[in-house]
């Protein structure tokens, strides 16, 4: 047994020796599209409780049409990481959404718990493609009575946590 101060006795594993309950590869063309879809947007789950038994994380893709914007909200105790694959994401945050930053392909965006924010597709003609990871499967969204820095218009940014 390793002498690193940790109890490794629980690492004996399940009866299948981790064959079907261990590492899983989710091919990009086999994401779960069996979720409510919205015109102008495409959502798909890769990692969640239903697909792989994930207990503490959710991951998937979100494709958002040009000019899509959310209203002001936060996600309670959840942490979020957004990785921009294609397009231009604009984030506004703060008590009055007074701060702004943009991210492009290859950039990561971190949204801490309880931070009031607004997500915006900064492009008027290009779809924003992102990978989204959340710190829990629980869908938490708290809409805030803050005048959005940029008025929501067209299609709202909707994924499993930003409901219609």
From TrEMBL:
Classification via SUPFAM superfamilies: RmlC-like cupins
Domain of life: Bacteria
Start-end of Basic and acidic residues biased regions: 1-10
UniProt-annotated stretches for the region Disordered: 1-24
Residue ranges of every copy of the Cupin type-2 domain listed in the record: 61-132
Pfam families in the record: Cupin_2
PANTHER family hit by this protein: H2HPP ISOMERASE
Name of the protein in question: Cupin domain-containing protein
